[in-house]
């Protein structure tokens, strides 16, 4: 079955799914995106993702291309047409197509692209059971990574440098020595005395939807949580570390910079949060 993408009002086979060379997303990364988990054919936490999308669009002063209900129909339609049971749906909205010039163009319609893909759920679960490795990298991103833009070059380079060092993920460290987040996920630790710590959601991290749902799990499980910056050294001394994102959910990190985290195995807190996650996520 060939994959179908939605591009500006049309559902097209992948080979025909194209945007213009002067799309501002392509030329300036003047675009925002969302990635939503698909589970048993249903969208997970769609409402929260569309809330964040509206916030990103508002921050960049890009007009919503269509009403929210219409966007929701497109997302579901792309999932259905691609027969996705488990995987994710990707939505990108750029400011539109215009002659190359930095200021906002006038009277230009935003471009909308939606794709969906399957993920091997068993492989993901096997990975979670094993845990992943990460290396720390300097956080050299711009000051508004709370806006979910497609300007991900530092993230691309960070992930590649992790792979080059034989690790899977990269954890960003800011100039003061505090961890911000991972290359495509939020970062968490469990301290030696059992406190969960994740950076507060300021402009230095993306406010993850998975992170927000995990907060609800944490509340129900009566775990002690601290939203604050933590250092690389604290992460080295942590009992557990993990990342959260819509594609990885709660993913244990078992090595950081070639040192085992805790006993080098996925920890009980991460395992529990992963297990309980979907009881708290909204299924659309
Ligand atoms: N931080 C970054 C830099 C990300 O790219 C992502 C997801 O893509 C996240 C955090 C996690 O966000 P979410 O839980 O909404 O997927």
> Cofactors and ligands present?
pyridoxal-5'-phosphate
Pattern of helices and strands = EEHEEHHEEHEHEEEEHEEHEEEH
Low confidence ranges: none
Q: Tell me how many strands there are.
A: 16
Portion in beta strands: 25-35%
The main sheet comes to:
10 strands, mixed
Q: Count every helix, treating DSSP H or I runs of 4 or more residues as helices.
A: 8
- Return the structural class: alpha+beta
The shape, in one word, is globular
Proportion in helices = 25-40%
| CA gyration radius, whole angstroms | 19 Å
Q: If you average the pLDDT, what whole number results?
A: 97
First-last Cα distance? 25 Å
Give an overview in words.
With 284 residues, this protein is α+β, with helices and mostly antiparallel strands. Helices cover 30% and strands 29% of the residues. The protein contains eight helices and 16 strands. The two termini are 25 Å apart. The site of pyridoxal-5'-phosphate has 13 residues, from helix 6 and strand 14.
Which structural traits does this protein have?
single chain; 284 residues; alpha+beta; ten-stranded mixed β-sheet; six-stranded antiparallel β-sheet; 29% strand; binds pyridoxal-5'-phosphate
């Amino acid at each position: 079955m060939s994959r179908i993408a939605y591009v500006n009002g049309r559902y097209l086979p992948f080979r025909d799914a194209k945007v213009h060379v002067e799309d501002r997303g392509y030329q300036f990364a003047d675009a925002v995106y969302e990635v939503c988990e698909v589970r048993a054919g249903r969208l997970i936490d769609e409402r929260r993702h569309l809330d964040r999308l509206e916030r990103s669009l508002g921050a960049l002063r890009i007009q919503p291309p269509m009403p929210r209900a219409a966007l929701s129909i497109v997302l579901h339609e792309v999932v259905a047409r691609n027969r996705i049971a488990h995987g994710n749906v990707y939505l990108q909205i750029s400011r539109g197509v215009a002659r190359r010039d930095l200021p906002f163009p006038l009277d230009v319609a935003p471009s909308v692209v939606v794709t969906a893909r399957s993920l091997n759920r068993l492989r993901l679960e096997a990975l979670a059971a094993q845990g992943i490795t990460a290396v720390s990298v300097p956080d050299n991103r711009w000051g508004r990574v709370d806006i979910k833009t497609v300007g991900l070059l530092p993230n691309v380079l960070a992930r590649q440098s992790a792979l080059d060092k034989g690790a899977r993920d990269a954890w960003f460290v800011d100039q003061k020595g505090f961890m911000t987040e991972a290359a495509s996920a939020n970062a968490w630790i469990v301290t030696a005395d059992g406190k969960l710590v994740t950076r507060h959601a300021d402009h230095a991290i993306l406010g993850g939807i998975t992170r927000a749902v995990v907060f609800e799990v944490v509340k129900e499980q009566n775990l002690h949580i601290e939203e604050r910056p933590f250092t690389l050294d604290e992460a080295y001394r942590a009992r557990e570390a993990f990342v959260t994102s819509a594609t990885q959910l709660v993913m244990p990190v078992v090595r950081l910079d070639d040192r085992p985290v805790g006993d080098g195995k996925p920890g009980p807190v991460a395992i529990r949060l992963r297990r309980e996650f979907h009881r708290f996520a909204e299924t659309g």
